[in-house]
Amino acid sequence: MSTLLSVRELTMRFGGLTAIDQLSLEVPASKITGIIGPNGAGKTTLFNCLTGFYKPTTGTLRLNHPDRGEIRLESLPSHRVARDAQVVRTFQNIRLFPKMTVLENLIVAQHNVLQRASKFSIAGIFALPGYRKAEGEAMARAGTWLHRLNLEQFADHAAGDLPYGIQRRIEIARALCVNPVLLCLDEPAAGLNPRESAELNELLLYLSGELGIAILLIEHDMSVVMNVSDHICVINYGRKIAEGSPEKVQNDPHVIKAYLGEDDEDEASGGIAA
Amino acid sequence: MAYALQQLINGLTLGSMYGLIAIGYTMVYGIIGMINFAHGDIFMVSAFIAVTAFTLLAAADVSSIPLALTFVLIVSIFFTSAYGWAVERIAYRPLRGSTRLAPLISAIGMSIFLQNTVQLTQGARVKPIPPVIEGGFEVWSTPDFTVQVGWSQLLIIVITVIMMFAFTWLITQTPFGRQQRSCEQDRTMASLLGINVDRTISFTFMLGASLAAVAGVMVTVYYGVIDFYIGFLAGIKAFTAAVLGGIGSLPGAMLGGLLIGLIESFWSAYLWAEYKDVATFAILCLVLMLRPSGLLGRPEVEKV
Amino acid sequence: MSTVVFARHQVTATERFRDAGWVAFVALILGIPLIGLTTVDGGGALEVETRFGVLAIFVVVSFVGRLGLRWLIDTMGARKLERLRDDSNKSAGISPVKVVNILGWIALGASIALPIMYSDNRYVVDTATTVLIYVMLGWGLNVVVGLAGLLDLGYVAFYAVGAYSYALLSTQYGWGFWEALPVSGGLAATFGILLGYPILRLRGDYLAIVTLGFGEIIRIILVNWTEFSNGPNGISSIPRPSLFGLDFTRSPAEGEQTFASFFGIEYSPMHRLIFLYYLILVLALLTHAFVSRLRKLPIGRAWEALREDEIACQAMGMNTTNIKLSAFAIGAMLGGFAGMFFAARQGFISPESFTFTESAIILAIVVLGGMGSQMGVVLAATLLVLIPEFGRNFSEYRMLLFGAAMVLIMVWKPSGLLSHREPTLRLSRGGAAINDAVKEAAQ
Ligand SMILES: Nc1ncnc2c1ncn2[C@@H]1O[C@H](COP(=O)(O)OP(=O)(O)O)[C@@H](O)[C@H]1O
Ligand SMILES: [Mg+2]
User: Fold this and answer.
1) What is the value of ipTM here, to two decimals?
2) DSSP letters for C118-170
3) Which helix (H) or strand (E) holds C61?
4) Measured between alpha carbons, how far is B17 from B257 in angstroms, rounded to an integer?
5) Using an 8 Å Cβ cutoff, are B288 and B243 in contact?
6) Which of B136, C211, C257, C439 can bridge C262 by disulfide, Cβ–Cβ 3.0-4.6 Å?
7) Contacts of A119 (CB under 8 A, 6+ apart)
8) pTM of the shown model
């Protein structure tokens, strides 16, 4: 098992608040790594540091890119993290392009490939064969993911008008169109009903198992995290308090304490596993 | 040195007026998040009301300056705040909740409309009035330059300080101020808690217009001539002042106004007077590039 | 789709009168200082003059107008409700896209036929040319504001750059219209990037005020730097464009031919006007084709995505800096072309043509038309140029009407006249490629 991303002593401070405190973490390739922790633990902040939206106060983020060798994520601006390092994320508060259709959302995600093919838009304006081919491929990729995520019937609808659960799926599909080696999902099951969650599980297993995409998964829905994660990291107050297999983490007293306070250990383990 | 002191005094006078107008921009921006483009023209309307009022008083042979000033201020504040109220009611309220650009366009339309209304009803020529307050006193005299403070300058600075105190009191100490601040933070929540948001917003516009009215009277007193076009430049500079100080911040608006006034008078005195507006805008750009939230504004970090 | 329809409260006559009375009262208060009273020059000092008659008329008109308006709104509202009730179970009729498309073709046909039908009416051709200049400007600004969502209040600066670069190139260095065209556009685009670069980080209203400042800076420089721009006097005798070397003058220059002599027709000053009209029509149509095509390319979709969510763009690996700069540059270039045409048409330019009001008008055209809608721009430009023309006989009311129209249209239709957005591509059109891909994926 090779390590895809290694986070070393990452710290992120906002003024006096330390949102992430000396966090170290290894993310293996082609596996699902769950990140859990109470609200405000610093999970989203970790994603923001990873994807270049926040510049970490200290610490290193090394990505062993399968084709491009080692990339230091902490020094890249956000668009290069997605473009060059192929680390792509979704957002806790869905961020689609609401007035554009679902299909357009997925095509925009392939902007860099298409833009290069359009040769400063000149090949695009005249619809030269090179550009047409690239456009066809982009459509095909979008079509594949639309099909895989069961979104075909919404393809020509404005993304912002669709129900919440569908928007979540669109966001994942859009991220997949960027061709990620590491996919960071921020609470993808929030607001989904049980059936949709089950479908999400299946999708995540397919992505990591069949396509070899490594996944970092922030999730509160234990039925998702515990069922699909190969490895779970628990964060509280910006520190890692436990790590290991789902079974191990579920029974870890620190975790139970973080979630439910000091007492009620029996109920706590039941609650987390639920 | 003496010359610089003179520029300082002139700059503060000018800056006080910009500051008063800027507060109107910043309050409206704070509460409904739009640039009230017509605010400069509200200020211009108030100057015309002041001219009419001064002329009426002259015809009635009122010679007491304090009496005349009080009368003109009250009349001007009354009518100008009516204009502030009407502009909001007609052009902005129907657009609340639509895109951010719609009220801006409506405001620009309102500004053009007001300008042309005044031009049509009051004439396009400049309106001169005889000096209301003459003279001044010497502060400092060197062999080659005498620093003078006009009584009108002193009056402007004093009234501005008084207005600032009254205004701060209104916003921080009164129920209206509390409602105003709560609407600024979260309009939906405020309305759920039983605050009449519409009325609070109307009041905010009237308050902003009142301050603009004070500035309008002072401009009339200070310069003695006005025309229908003064609102545009004064409005843009005051808005620049509000942005410079950090839009949404009341002390910021005043500070921004004073800075713009000072920059303008020093630039005109020592460099090229004809490029003074270029200086204002260039400094605005610089500040925004280095400190996008203005001098006293809270930085807006977008959480992702 | 079903719509819930609520019963409406019936408005009583007393309520209507009270409402109108209140409006009349406000009109009275607002009217006293500006309409009821005015100051006139009474030989040295000002004197107050009263116009209470006019004020009374104003108040009465407000009262009656409000009554009528209320009534109109209520009946229209009721009728709309009726329609909603009827339509609750039916689907909508013709799609708005089709209507707009048909209107577009009609407009195109009309604009081609117009100078033929009015070939001796100087006023109509001139006004139509003005409309087309604004249409072209609107299409240019649409890239920046409508598509990329960058609020630009200083667009007139690029119009000025285009106009002055042609004016200077032609009067100082003897360049012709066609040689100067790419240079003017390029210069304007350069200015777009120069302005865009420092303000990339600003958003929304800050951007608006800085662009406004930039527009004013350009104008102030044009006014004051007399050696360069001839100051407020402007630049005159700018050469007019020729048709493949054929001039539109009465008598030909040495060894050359004029349009009239070449075609063996009698000289008429209308020829030039009509030529200019067709020239701007072609420029505008090219602009339209260019922008519509760009919109369907990666760059255009990137602009729209930027307008929708800048952070999501970055998360998709898009370099938002370049995307913004490209929007500024292309918008500016199109503005430059329009400016150049303006200079060539007028033969004379001065800083007065490039005031903030001009920027406001262009922005209003984009927003009133419906952000990002190309046909909306045409509609709004036509309305905004023609509405003031109706007040032509009382020319001092022109801008008053203009301002009022801006407010009213916005209040009436806050998202613009044509706010429908047509997707840049559809799944069905992807056709074969998609189906193959889907099959592959299914295997
Ligand atoms: N841009 C920011 N400025 C200040 N504080 C922030 C910022 N972003 C996150 N925080 C703080 O960091 C802490 C962790 O937040 P977050 O990572 O969003 O938690 P969660 O684990 O629920 O995703 C919270 O206390 C939050 O308020
Ligand atoms: Mg979070």
Assistant:
1) 0.89
2) TTT-HHHHHHHHHHHHHHHHHHHHIIIIIIT----S-THHHHHHHHHHHHHHH
3) helix C52-87
4) 7
5) yes
6) C257
7) A128, A130, A131
8) 0.83
* Per-residue pLDDT tens digits for C44-70: 777 888 888 888 888 999 899 888 888
**Structural domains for chain A:** 1-86+181-274 (3.40.50.300), 96-179 (no CATH)
Q: What is the CATH number of domain C96-412?
A: 1.10.3470
pLDDT tens digits along C268-287: 777 778 888 888 899 889 99
Sign of CA dihedral A35, A149, A154, A104: positive
Residue type, C224: N
Q: Give A17 Cα–ligand 1 centroid separation in angstroms.
A: 9
Residue with tokens 């101020």: B177
Q: Give the residue numbers in C contacting A (CB under 8 Å), as ranges.
A: 290, 293-294, 297-299, 301-302, 304-305, 308-309, 311-320, 421, 423-428, 430, 433-438, 440-442
Long-range contacts of C435-439 (CB under 8 A, 24+ apart): C435/A143, C436/A140, C437/A139, C437/A140, C437/A141, C437/A143, C437/A144, C437/A147, C438/A143, C438/A144, C438/A147
Q: Is the pLDDT of residue B243 over 60?
A: yes
- Among the partner-chain residues C297, C317, C440, the one whose CB lies closest to the CB of A124 is C297
> Residue A34 — φ and ψ, nearest 5°?
-90, 140
Radius of gyration of chain C from Cα atoms?
A: 26
**Selection from B203, B237, B242 nearest residue B219 by Cα:** B237
- Are residues A49 and A74 in contact, defined by beta-carbon separation less than 8 angstroms? yes
Report the alpha-carbon distance of residue A171 to residue C312 in Å, rounded. 10
Q: Residue C251 — pLDDT band, cuts 50, 70, 90?
A: low
